[in-house]
Amino acid sequence: MSQLLILATEGKENPLVPPIPELVIGLLAFVIVFGFLAKKLLPNINKVLEERREAIEGGIEKAEAAQTEAQSVLEQYKAQLAEARHEAARLRQEAQEQGATLIAEMRAEGQRQREEIIAAGHAQIEADRKSAASALRQDVGTLATELAGKLVGESLEDHARQSRVIDRFLDELEEKAEATR
Q1: Within the chain, which residues score under 50 in pLDDT?
Q2: How far apart are alpha carbons 173 and 84 in whole angstroms?
Q3: 111 vs 81: CA distance, rounded Å
Q4: What residues have CB less than 8 Å from 19, skipping those under 6 apart?
Q5: SS (H, E, C) the chain
Q6: pLDDT tens-digit profile of 118-167?
Q7: Are 128 and 150 in contact (CB under 8 A)?
Q8: CA-CA distance, 176 to 171, in Å (whole number)?
Q9: Would you say 8 and 17 are in contact if contact means Cβ atoms under 8 Å apart?
Q10: What does R_g of the chain's alpha carbons equal in angstroms?
Q11: Within 10 Å of residue 170's Cβ, how many Cβ atoms?
Q12: What CA–CA distance (Å, rounded) separates 25 from 31?
């Protein structure tokens, strides 16, 4: 600063160094403007900055609360999903068991129906065999009587006698057949 004074006193004007009265007036104007800004604008600016800071902190708190709530909801969804998967597995197992039971019941029913059909078939075959044997006995008896009548030369038309002769003859044939088995 002493060099500024020396230069100012020499009379030469330096374009970089302003005159002292301008410097003092500029300094006073700066202090007045700065004081005005400090008294009037700085509190408003600080108030706005404080409101922004509170809004940001409130937003952060809200975001943290929302994140905590989202985390709890996520845990609930995971628990519900696990429960749903467990329920689905249980239902699948029940369905498989019911399917196996149904298959076993259907097999048993099929086996029972098959045995009924086989038994009915055997009964029908036995009835047909007896019917055929009876019809065959009558036909053989009739043919045998006619043949015997032709051989003997007289009629053997007495039915009671025919029946006895035929029955005795067929019984003898059956006994021989059974003996050879």
Answers
A1: none
A2: 80
A3: 44
A4: 8
A5: CHHHHHHHHHCCCCCCCCCHHHHHHHHHHHHHHHHHHHHHHHHHHHHHHHHHHHHHHHHHHHHHHHHHHHHHHHHHHHHHHHHHHHHHHHHHHHHHHHHHHHHHHHHHHHHHHHHHHHHHHHHHHHHHHHHHHHHHHHHHHHHHHHHHHHHHCCCCCCHHHHHHHHHHHHHHHHHHHHHHC
A6: 999 999 999 888 888 788 777 877 777 777 667 765 555 666 666 676 77
A7: no
A8: 9
A9: yes
A10: 65
A11: 16
A12: 10
Structure tokens at 55: 């809004």
pTM of structure:
0.39
Which residues, other chains included, contact 140 with Cβ-Cβ below 8 Å and sequence gap of 6+? 166, 170
Q: Which residues contact 137 (CB under 8 A, 6 or more apart)?
A: 166, 167, 170
> Tokens 């039971």 belong to which residue?
101
Report how far residue 24's alpha carbon sits from residue 42's, in angstroms, rounded to the nearest whole number.
25
Q: Would you state the structure tokens that stand for residue 92, as one six-digit string? A: 């699948």
